[in-house]
Amino acid sequence: MTGSLRPGMEGPSFIVGGLELSNPIMMAPMAGVTLPAVRRMFWRLGAGLAHTEMVSCAGLTRKNRKTTEMLFRAPGEGPLVLQLFAGDSDTLMRGAEIALSLGVPFDALGINMACPMPKVLKKGAGARLLSRLDLAVDMVRRLNRLGLPVWPKIRKIVPDGSGPDTLEFASALVEAGAANVGVHGRTASQRYEGTSDFDEVRRVARALPGVISASGDISGPEDVSKALAGGCVSVFLARGGVTDPFVLPRILSHLGYNIGDSVYDDPPSIETRAALFSDLAEDLSTFHGERVAMVLLKRLMSGVFRGVPGCSSYRRAIASASDWGTMCAHIRDWRQFFERGIKDE
Prior knowledge:
The protein is α/β, with parallel strands linked by helices. It contains 16 helices and 11 strands. It has 2 domains: 14-254, TIM Barrel; 270-344, Orthogonal Bundle (Non-ribosomal Peptide Synthetase Peptidyl Carrier Protein, Chain A), CATH 1.10.1200. It has helices at residues 36-44, 57-61, 65-69, 89-101, 118-121, 133-144, 166-176, 198-207, 221-229, 239-243, 247-254, 270-288, 290-304, 311-320, 324-332, 334-344, and strands spanning 14-16, 19-21, 25-27, 49-51, 55-56, 80-85, 108-112, 150-155, 181-184, 212-215, 234-237. The chain is globular. The two termini are 29 Å apart. 46% of the residues are buried.
């Protein structure tokens, strides 16, 4: 599979959030996951757009090395949204200006208004902004001055009598100039528990046609069809893509895209999966180093080989690898583990 980053997809391009995309399936920003190497894996599988990890504007202003490294864009990537977070407009603008001054080409600027984790909330960022509409609107207006489409991402808001609901909040962002608003159907207090409220996301999408992307519990073709039929212009694929990366080409096929049958058979052959995993390992070690590669390969392996008979033997081998040489040997000799696993079953 090494070579072309994308399958031979055919289908109409369309405009989402000011960008011309090949399809409406986008990789959501995921901390510790949407690194360039992993994004390249999802480009291979047909993603129409991807997000960076959530990047701290405060870290950029302090010239933090690890934060700055998060701006790296790998060769061959498609449309990419730089997602930023900050607790005030000045820090957001300074961080965005620094990021763009480094010459890395981004296609849109995202603002995270959805992260529910305490370390982000205590900075006044992420989902904390859902209770500060004036600040959220100011962030969108000011970021628009930089000339790129602005893509805020929010969560479901249950009105408490003193503030807006989800639709009112999203409407204010659109009026301020947001080109696309990602709406996650869980509240901030839910974090990632419970279920996403698709009805709420579709209510907002129908009221704001052409600018709402659905996020939360997108795990298969039926979820995507329901979101698009409900008025969403696109969907953000997150944990559903990690637990089963090949759901992406299945979704595209379901939507009528020609994804290249010779490369992505359904179900994918074990050879196809092994080739994708090998390419991922090479990209991870090249762009991020062996330590990061070891961690992410162990995390993503189960998804890439999801449902394959005999997988348990290979999973144990990958999980127990303690050095890069051993990991590479396991990746190279994958077939013997599956043959052993099938005999043991």
